[in-house]
Structure formats: C-alpha cells, structure tokens
Amino acid sequence: MKSQQQQFAEGVLFTDFYQLTMAQVYHRMGIHESKAQFDYFFRSYPDYGIHQAGYCVNAGLETFMDWVSEAYFKESEIDYLRNLKDANGRAMFTPEFLKYLQGQSVATGLTLRAVPEGRVIHPYVPNAIVEGPLIFAQLIETSLLNHLNYQTLIATKAARIYESGMGQAMLEFGLRRAQDRSGFAGARAAIIGGAAGTSNVGASAVLGYQPSGTHAHSMIQAIVAMGGTELDAFEAYAESYPDACILLVDTYDTLNSGIPNAIKVFEKLKAQGHKPVGIRMDSGDLAFLTIQAALMLNKAGFPDTKIVLSNQMDELVIWQIITQIKEESARYGLDADNLISRLAYGVGTRLITSEGDPALDGVFKLVAMQQDNAWVPAIKISENPEKTLNPGYKKIWRLYDQSQKAIADVLSLEGEDLCHLEAIHLHHPTDQTKQRVLNCAQISKVEKLHETILEDGKLVYEFPTLEQIRQTRADDIQRLHSGVRRLMNPHNYHVSLTDKLWNLKEELIFQYTNGTKG
Ligand SMILES: Nc1ncnc2c1ncn2[C@@H]1O[C@H](COP(=O)(O)OP(=O)(O)OP(=O)(O)O)[C@@H](O)[C@H]1O
Ligand SMILES: O=P(O)(O)OC[C@H]1O[C@H](OP(=O)(O)OP(=O)(O)O)[C@H](O)[C@@H]1O
Ligand SMILES: O=C(O)c1cccnc1
C-alpha cells in the first residue's frame, strides 16, 4: 500500500499546477471534452559539447503508461485540491470542477499513438501523439514529458557509451550519483540503451535482471584495518563467490600488490575447479594498466579473465582507452582486438546524469482541435522558424535506401499514404530552399513509426520485454549510416515534411501573420 505522501508525489498530482488550473478553465467554458491533439517531440539532440549525438534512443513509454494506469483522482487528492486557496482565501477549484474530476482516470477517452521503445528517433518527429478530451490530454503532459524526456536522454547516452566500447559489456553503476529517485528510471533506460546490467538491486529485481557488481575498496580497507591483508580480503571474497569472483586491484598498488594477489587467489580457485571471472581497476592510466594486467594474467595462465574498467567513464574516455590499447598492444606482443574483447566497463555518474547535457528538450504541443467531427489544424508561430509548429493530424514514416539504411523520417498529413507513391517530394521543416524528390527506385522500404498504445482510454498494446526493446535498439542503430552513428560531428539525419504538410504549414503561417486568423 502506498503512503499518502507517496500517493501525492507519484499519483495523479505528479503534474504542474497550471495543468489543473487550465483544466478548470476548459471545464468552466464547457470545452473540456472537445477533442484535441498534442504532439510530443524534441527539438535537438543532446549536445555534449564537442560531441553532439546524431540520434536518440526512445525510452520511457512503458513506465509512463504504468503511471497512467494508476493516475486517477481519488478522494484524498480531491480533498487536497479542495483546500487550495488563493491569496484572498478563495478556493482555487470549484465544487463543480472537483465533482467532475472525482474518480476519473487521466486516460479517460484518450488515444495514444507512439514510437515503440528502443527505436531510434530524431528531432521534430512526433514521438507520441495524444488525442482525446482536451482536459485529459492536457493533464497528462507533465508526466509524459518527465518520463519520456529523461529515459530517452539516458538511453541515448547509454547507446553512445555502449557503441564506444565496441560491443563489450557495459554495466550501469550510477545509483549513488543519480538525481535522487531517478536511479530506477535511469537504470531501465541504460539497459534499453545497451547496458548489460546494473548494480541497482531494486531495479534489477523489478526488471528481471541479475544484479551486477564487484566489491568496493572499503571491503579491503576494513579487513586490513582489522589486522588482515589485501590477500586475506581477496580470499574471503573468493571463498564466498568462487564462480562470480571479480577482484578490485587498485586499493594500494595495482601492479605490485593488487594484481599479484588476485593471481594467487585465481590460482587457488582454479585448483578447486572454479573459473575466476576477472579484475576491476578504478584509477590510474587505464589503458596502460590494462596492458600490464593482461601481460601478468596471461603469464599466470589466465588469458580469458575479464578486465573491468571504472572511474568517471564515458564514451570519449572509453574511445580514448581503446585507441591507446590499439596503438600500444603490439609493442607488448599482445593482440589488440583480443585484449579489447576482454574489457568490460562500469559506468556511473556520467551515464546516469547524462553528463554534458542534463535534459532532453522534449515538448508537448497542441496541433489540432476537432470541430464538427473534423480536425482543424492548430499552429503556434515563432520568430524563430524552428519553433513554429508542424500543424495538424499527422502520420510519421521512415524511409530506407537500397542498402537498407534509414535515410529520412517524414511527417505527412493523416490522409497520405507514402507506401504507394511513385515519388516523394520532401521539404526541410523550416528552410524553403531545401527540397528533394525521392523516387521509388531509391527507396527499399517505407515504414510507419507509430503503434497505437491507448485507444479511447483502453490499453491496446502489448509491451515488449526489455530484451526485445534492446534488440529493437540494436537493429535500429545498425540501420543508421555510419556517418549518423559516429560519436563526433555526426551527419545530419533528414527529417522532412511532405508537400501537403508543407503547404498546410505555409498557408496557416500566411493566415495568422496576415491577420485573417488568430
Ligand atoms: N588511458 C586513458 N585515456 C583517457 N582517459 C583515461 C585513461 N585512463 C584513465 N582515464 C580517465 O581519466 C580520468 C582520470 O581521472 P583522475 O586523475 O581523477 O583518476 P585517477 O588517476 O585514478 O585518480 P584517483 O586515484 O583520484 O581516482 C578518469 O575519468 C579516467 O576514467
Ligand atoms: O566513476 P563512476 O562512473 O561514477 O562509477 C562508479 C564509481 O563509484 C564507485 O566509486 P566510489 O568512490 O563511490 O566507491 P568505492 O569506494 O567503491 O570506489 C566505483 O568505484 C566507481 O569509481
Ligand atoms: O559493483 C561495483 O563494482 C560498483 C557498484 C557501484 C558503484 N561502483 C562500483
């Protein structure tokens, strides 16, 4: 059972106050059940300074839907709202409005179409489209943005870090440095993005993963302080976990004490018929130390043990370490590829906090209202053309070239079917001078990106398992051109509007800027 505080913090009140005050205005005007349509999209890839992402990995949908399924206005929440007063002591919310809300789910009447988790996504492409009663579409905004922005941000960072490790295991170690309770969502998103597991035990339990980990310096320090030695500490750990033994070798002196002691313990384990898993190094020049560790482990007859690296890792540090290993291995008679395949990475702070860019700029914008059973496109115009909305009821497509790589995401009007066109005329979303025509011969596949998740308030989607989501992510990244996929200065992936959508947008901009509307 949730405590009252937990219920308030995580239930239907997990929102911004203005959603509720606007909801009351809609109710008062009698337009609260008018049908509205909102797009969720982000405007720019996370920018980590000199290395901006070239794609994002979508995540957070199932967690958001978990919230939706429990978010309804219970007695206690209605009581809380009833007691809110303005500066003059006047109730903020009327009894009529609260009576309307009482017992209602935020999903009432809503239809949600969204890009599945794990899929690669790009700026300006509506990742989710919410359609239904204005009041409820508005009320879910904050929670949707909170869940999808954060998890997409972390899944994206995780994908980059995993990619930089060239397929070797990357473990999420960030709970201690996560922003308070974001640790669970961060661990989930990291796994979607490529982490093989997490040290976060609660998240592992919920997600059905084996928790991952080694041990801390404190275990050795404690045993040494009580009169033992580093070797005693290693032996005690190995006796407890003979088949899951990874020893942290950098507490005192990695090369002269940690690794020699680990080897002694590994020899004992081997003699007992066990297979030691490896060592972890958490300080120093990790490329140099990896080579030295491999030389020592190989010589002692442990050429397969893993070498786990940690300490403020991110995609650039991993890339740099691998580059150095590639350059230096031959000099020591080591095969660089073999050595790289022995590595694993424990990544904490810079993954769970998305170091370099702390938030995805995802937004939730009204794009259409229904009048007399027809959708009327809505637009918001900005002096900055990139902030002018793509109006109306839309469909979202991805085009693939003859090498099966994704070449463009396309926003069309709802009635358009891109599968059966001879040629597709594409417009840059804001720059009139940038247009191109793709003909059938250039396109191997046209794919719709949205699945229907909610229909008239009912869940109609079967959520994939995390393993399936991870496979989706791997397949989608594989289908990116390497220029889009690279860590630094990636190619700009094309997001385009069809002719019809472009014309509608132009027409609306004309009407609103010439005063015939608005
Ligand atoms: N060969 C390498 N190339 C690039 N970066 C590296 C290499 N080896 C380690 N690093 C990274 O450099 C940073 C080193 O930071 P720092 O000097 O604080 O670590 P340290 O030497 O281990 O210190 P401490 O003992 O305080 O942990 C870390 O982010 C680490 O991951
Ligand atoms: O560097 P991060 O990417 O955040 O990875 C997690 C870090 O957390 C631990 O250090 P900490 O000093 O917290 O504990 P320890 O005493 O176990 O080293 C661990 O040893 C890593 O260095
Ligand atoms: O298990 C580990 O090695 C671990 C877990 C959390 C943080 N740092 C390391």
In short:
Its EC number is 6.3.4.21. The chain has 518 residues and is of the alpha/beta class.
Characterization of this structure:
There is one protein chain. The protein has a domain at about 155-350: TIM Barrel, CATH 3.20.20. Helix content is about 40%, strand content about 20%. The chain contains 19 helices and 23 strands. The strands form 5 sheets. Strands 15-14-1-7-5-21-22 form a 7-stranded antiparallel β-sheet. Strands 9-8-13-12-11-10 form a 6-stranded parallel β-sheet. Helix 3 (about 60-70) packs antiparallel against helix 7 (about 140-165), helix 7 packs across helix 8 (about 180-195) and helix 10 (about 215-225) packs across helix 11. The site of adenosine-5'-triphosphate has 12 residues, from helix 13 and helix 14. Belongs to the NAPRTase family.
Supply database-style keywords.
ligase, 19 helices, binds adenosine-5'-triphosphate, binds 1-O-pyrophosphono-5-O-phosphono-alpha-D-ribofuranose, 518 residues, TIM Barrel, alpha/beta, 23 strands, globular, 7-stranded antiparallel sheet, Nic_PRibTrfase_pncB, Nicotinate phosphoribosyltransferase, 39% helix, 6-stranded parallel sheet, binds nicotinic acid, glycosyltransferase activity, Aldolase_TIM
- Output the CATH topology of the domain at 156-352: TIM Barrel
Q: What is the molecular shape? A: globular
What's the main sheet like?
Answer: 7 strands, antiparallel
Task: State the secondary-structure class.
Answer: alpha/beta
How many E strands?
Answer: 23
Q: Low-confidence runs (pLDDT<50, min 5 residues)?
A: none
Ligands and ions found: adenosine-5'-triphosphate, 1-O-pyrophosphono-5-O-phosphono-alpha-D-ribofuranose, nicotinic acid
Oligomeric state of the chains present here: single chain
Give the C-level CATH assignment of the domain at 156-352. Alpha Beta
Please state the second-level CATH architecture of the domain at 156-352: Alpha-Beta Barrel
Helix content: 25-40%
| Cα distance spanning the termini | 49 Å
Strand residues, percent: 15-25%
Strand order of the largest sheet: 15-14-1-7-5-21-22
Number of helical segments with 4 or more residues: 19
- CATH level-four homologous superfamily name of the domain at 156-352: Aldolase class I
Mean pLDDT value? 96
GO cellular component, one term: cytosol
Pathway: Cofactor biosynthesis; NAD(+) biosynthesis; nicotinate D-ribonucleotide from nicotinate: step 1/1
Catalytic activity: 5-phospho-alpha-D-ribose 1-diphosphate + nicotinate + ATP + H2O = nicotinate beta-D-ribonucleotide + ADP + phosphate + diphosphate
Enzyme class: ligase
